[in-house]
Design goal:
- With 157 residues, the protein is an alpha+beta fold.
- The chain has 4 helices and 6 strands; from the N terminus they run H-H-E-E-E-H-E-H-E-E.
- The protein has one domain (5-154): Aminopeptidase, CATH 3.40.630.30.
- The chain has helices spanning 5-18, 29-37, 89-103, 119-125, and strands at residues 41-46, 62-69, 72-80, 108-114, 129-139, 145-154.
- A hairpin with a 2-residue loop joins strand 2 (62-69) and strand 3.
- The two termini are 23 Å apart.
- Bound molecules: coenzyme A.
- Coenzyme A binds next to strand 3, helix 3 and helix 4.
């Protein structure tokens, strides 16, 4: 999928303020645009009103990026900008990601998150279950280590 420059601007505007700096999870612009050059990568944007439709002056509330291989898709990045959180937009965007994955014939979606991320509550609400742990996978800014938790959702098409 080739993303228009405006959409990469939108992704980066959320990326730059959504991820806590200490965990090093945010991607830079080059990583995003290179990933989206690959045909099995896709992204989605959400506006503050929950819509996927944007006009020139619409702010961007959040985005996701996913990458599929055969019938499995990984949720690579998922974020809602801080000022738009706890309004249900995370629920809406995750439901859209999963519904599109199902529509593309995926049998399974998976993701990795650092242990303790509040996003885990959201993923559990959508039926994701823990399937593995990579001990001490993330190195925090202060040198401490956090496990990566792998989660999956099996899709019945
Ligand atoms: C995780 C994230 C996407 C949630 O977005 P959001 O728009 O606030 O999500 P919603 O408003 O739809 O809330 C969904 C549910 O998730 C849970 N949740 C979200 N943020 C939470 C927090 N800080 N603490 C506890 N639970 C939280 C709640 O159960 C919430 O439902 P509720 O508000 O009805 O209680 C957002 O906090 C974010 O972008 N975080 C930083 C980036 C990140 O860590 N992404 C995930 C990488 S794996």
């Amino acid at each position: 999928m080739i993303a228009p420059k405006d959409d990469i601007d939108r992704i980066m505007s959320v990326m730059e303020r959504a991820f806590p700096a200490e965990f090093g999870e945010a991607w830079n612009r080059r990583q995003v645009s290179d990933a989206l050059l690959v045909s099995n990568c896709r992204y989605g944007l959400i506006a503050p009103d929950g819509s996927p439709n944007f006009y020139e002056d619409t702010d961007t509330a959040g985005f996701f990026m996913g990458r599929s291989v055969l019938d499995e898709e990984e949720l690579l990045l998922f974020a809602i900008a801080p000022e738009y959180r706890r309004k249900g937009l995370g629920h809406l965007l995750l439901a859209r990601f999963v519904s599109e994955a199902r529509g593309h014939g995926m049998g399974r979606v998976f993701l990795e998150m650092r242990r303790g991320n509040p996003a885990g509550v959201l993923y559990a609400a959508h039926g994701f279950v823990e399937v593995g742990v990579r001990p001490s996978y993330y190195r925090c800014g202060d040198g401490t280590r956090l496990d990566a938790i792998s989660q999956e959702l099996v899709l019945d098409n």
